[in-house]
Specification:
By secondary structure, the protein is α/β, with parallel strands linked by helices. It has one domain: Rossmann fold. Helices cover 39% and strands 18% of the residues. Strands 3-4-2-5-1-6-7-8 form an 8-stranded mixed beta sheet, with helices on both faces. Strand 3 and strand 4 form a beta hairpin. Helix 1 packs across helix 11. The chain is globular, with a radius of gyration of 17 Å. The structure holds adenosine-5'-diphosphate and magnesium ion. The site of adenosine-5'-diphosphate has 17 residues, from helix 1, strand 7 and helix 9.
Length: 266
């Protein structure tokens, strides 16, 4: 991909699936790092009170004084008071921790409760090319905030039995947000993760996913490898932890697809 002469305004991508353990956090970190390698300025938003995205980038969520929670709930706080640089040049993090779970409850009584994240991110958009929001495994108010802020959604699907179970509910939620809150929201892609080419089963699941979603499925398929759990322990993306690995190559390929697909509608 060609380098950019100037940066921003950012495309916002929500990494979303209400099922846990499908590769949302792993894909957020590694897609982000691969986009940054291609010279894009990237902001990752940890929008799961578990703080797994923060941990995966070497941050201890328990030690944070301010997080994305404060950015959502406190007027007058600016993003630079919450932003952290990561070890990847060009990639920043809005970290989170368990405090964020209170926002789900507190936002309910706010005016425009679905657009709190969109408001918080707005001043940052000129500085970045991509903002990727790592959603929590639910379709509650936090996730609706992510979908309301986003231009597009990426849905990671584990190549396992029942991968498609629950996807109808997710696409309904996306459609509702589209109708009521964010008419420009697009489903940019279904990302097949944890694919094991040695098993007939993985191949069958992938075939069913392609049958169901056609051109919405990214050509890039993320294989299953222990390298990913290792990177969590190391607190860095696979692109730096194992830069020549198959997993790193896969996320670079995904980044090239995203550069092609996840751009402003003409
Ligand atoms: P989610 O954010 O959807 O809950 P994670 O990205 O945290 O999912 O992944 C769940 C677990 O699976 C983590 O331990 C992660 O390291 C591991 N994992 C993610 N992607 C892969 C993969 N392609 N191959 C093997 N393990 C993976
Ligand atoms: Mg996660």
């Amino acid at each position: 991909p060609a380098p950019l002469a100037e940066h921003g305004p950012a495309q916002i991508i929500a990494m979303c699936n209400q099922k846990g353990g499908v590769g949302k956090t792993t894909s957020t970190i590694n897609l982000g790092a691969a986009l940054a390698e291609y010279g894009r300025r990237v902001l990752l938003v940890d929008f799961d009170p578990q703080g797994a995205l923060s941990v995966g980038l070497g941050v201890n969520p328990m030690e944070l004084d301010v997080t994305v929670y404060n950015l959502l709930m406190e007027r007058g706080l600016t993003a630079d008071e919450v932003l952290l640089k990561t070890a990847v040049p060009g990639m920043d993090l809005l970290p989170s921790n368990i405090d964020l779970s209170a926002a789900e409850v507190q936002l309910v009584s706010e005016v425009a409760r679905e657009s709190a994240l969109a408001r918080a991110l707005k001043p940052l958009l000129p500085d970045y090319d991509y903002v990727i929001i790592d959603c929590q495994p639910s379709l509650g108010l936090l996730t609706v905030n992510a979908l309301t802020a986003a231009h597009s959604v990426i849905v990671p699907l584990e190549c396992e039995f029942f991968a498609l179970r629950g996807v109808a509910l997710l696409t309904e939620t996306i459609e509702k947000v589209c109708e009521r809150l964010n008419p420009d929201l697009r489903l940019d892609g279904i990302l097949a993760t944890m694919y094991d080419s040695r098993t007939v089963h993985s191949r069958e699941v992938l075939a069913r996913v392609v049958e169901a979603f056609g051109e919405h499925v990214f050509h890039t398929v993320i294989g299953r490898t222990v390298r990913f759990p290792e990177t969590t322990v190391a607190g860095e993306p696979i692109t730096t932890y194992a830069t020549n690995s198959v997993g790193a190559a896969a996320y670079r390929q995904l980044a090239r697809e995203v550069l092609d697909r996840c751009r402003p509608a003409e």
